[in-house]
Ferrochelatase
Amino acid sequence: MTKAETPATETAVNPYPPVRIVNDSYAPSIPSTRINPGKAVTDGTIGVLFMAYGGPETLEEMPGYLADIRSGRPTYAEVLEEISGNYEAIGGKSPLPEFTRAQVEATMAKLDEVGDYRAYIGMRHWSPWIEDAVRDMLDDGIRRAVAIVLAPQYSKLSVEKYQKKIKAALEMFHGQIEFAFVNQYHTEPGYITAMADRVRMGLAEFPEDQRGDVHVVLSAHSLPVRVIREGDPYADQLMESARLIAAQAGLSEEQWSWCYQSEGRSPEPWLGPQLEDWLPQLHAERGIDKVVSIAIGFVSDHVEILFDIDIEAQKVAQELGMRLVRPPALNTDPLFIGTVASVVHNKAQEL
């Protein structure tokens, strides 16, 4: 989420999807939740529900998208203008739906080799919604399924909310599917190695004789401090991932550091430091002028990377005279895809 997208306060999970269509101009097209829809469902078929945050396909969809994030609460005009500007700067739409579908198709190519699986895509805040996917699964006769969020670390503000949407959809459609939930996969070797490869990609952008002076900054989406104080494992899991990635990439303790990014607009304290604040601090205190920035909590290129890092953080770096390199996100990296397929297949054995 970008700052403008983040709700000011957390509210109780609504068991029913909010009204999504303000008027016809805001109504999204409804892509299919089904991957390979012609594949027959048998008694042995395991459904796989892949979930991601969602994003608008056009700027015209932005009011409806923000209304969904804000549970129907109105969005101030200046916020709508700001966030629309952010998306316009990265091409006028979110690339997340396309990347998600490509990731799912690649994962299913692996899963089809080892079992009878049927894939579905559900988004938390835009079409095709998680509720749409659960309805289609019920209509297709799916009785057992694995649910996975395309986010490696667990938090009750992220992964748990996706899982609650599944449970609410089953109640709404009066259906029954036995779900096995993947909560996290932040230490899986394939994920760690794929992220360490991103570190190596970033370092390779600098001349060999300068690489010893390059500092690697690992980051992830910020959350309110209160969530961590309440025992949420998100921050601990991120640091566990970060240390494993740094070690796999062969970085010393002095060669890398940690920060957060994309904090929300609410007045409460958020986890920090923020990337745009951390870069000046590294420059002032340690004289660092070469940086590789990698967001380890995101698995595809989307607005929190393409705008928050490539535009906002890059602007800060340029003003400081720093060179900032941001390697591509995992997207359809074979190591990551293989990891997701393995995690799903292993979880399916519990059904």
User: Anything to note?
Assistant: The chain has two domains: 24-185+333-348, 189-325. The chain is about 40% helix and 15% strand. The beta strands are 34-35, 46-52, 117-123, 144-149, 178-182, 215-221, 256-261, 290-295, 323-325. The longest strand covers residues 46-52.
